[in-house]
Amino acid sequence: TAQVFQEMVDKARQMPLVIYDSFDEDLGLWEMGENIDDLGKSWWKLSGGRYEWRMEAGQGLVWWVSPDMEPVGDFYLSAIAQKLEGSSSSSYGLAFRIFDIKHYYVLQINEYQNYAVYAHDYEEGWIELIPWGNSAAISSDGPNHLEIIAQGSLFMFFINGQLVNQVSDERFASGTAGLLTGLDNAGESASWVFDD
């Protein structure tokens, strides 16, 4: 019933705090400065109480950054994210249950009010868990509050307070979490900001 579901959501949102960052000051949790490699170039900095990320793609890519934290199984993950400028093919969101650089899940959204959820497994490649679909809950040009609740193999995805979808998958039982950006093609660039 709706009441049981709401009780489950309320309980998840009260899970013990593992990481909180207002981005008002550098706590040493996140990538800062510049990174250049074959995949592309990324620049990170704190600006106006937000974590700003600018990227130029050397090829199509999805890139995530994660703070140093202990792996967790069940969790509540929340961040406010917004694209500032750049390629219309860009996406952004959250990475979760990051086991290592080859095994993790992602929630991506874009400026066309679309979202998708994938698992990445080095042996299997990208596995579509929720195909790209539209949601009026997504702001096309403003900030978006992204939330994920994980309980066992069940994942629930909220955007701006609305449950947009849920899915079950048992590939990765625990891991860390982080922020995510993506560009589809070489030569494209974009910038985003993330907040608490």
Description:
With about 200 residues, the chain is mainly beta. Helix content is about 5%, strand content about 55%. The strands form 2 sheets. The protein has an 8-stranded antiparallel β-sheet with strand order 1-2-3-14-5-10-11-12, with no helix packed on it. Strand 10 and strand 11 form a beta hairpin. The mean pLDDT is about 95.
How far from one another are the termini?
A: 31 Å
What gyration radius follows from the Cα positions, in whole Å? 16 Å
Number of helices: 1
Mean pLDDT: 93
How many β-strands, per DSSP? Answer: 14
Strand content: over 45%
Question: What is the element string, with H for helices and E for strands?
Answer: HEEEEEEEEEEEEEE
Decide which structural class fits the backbone: mainly beta
What low-confidence regions span 5 or more consecutive residues with pLDDT below 50?
Answer: none
Largest β sheet strand count, sense and barrel closure: 8 strands, antiparallel
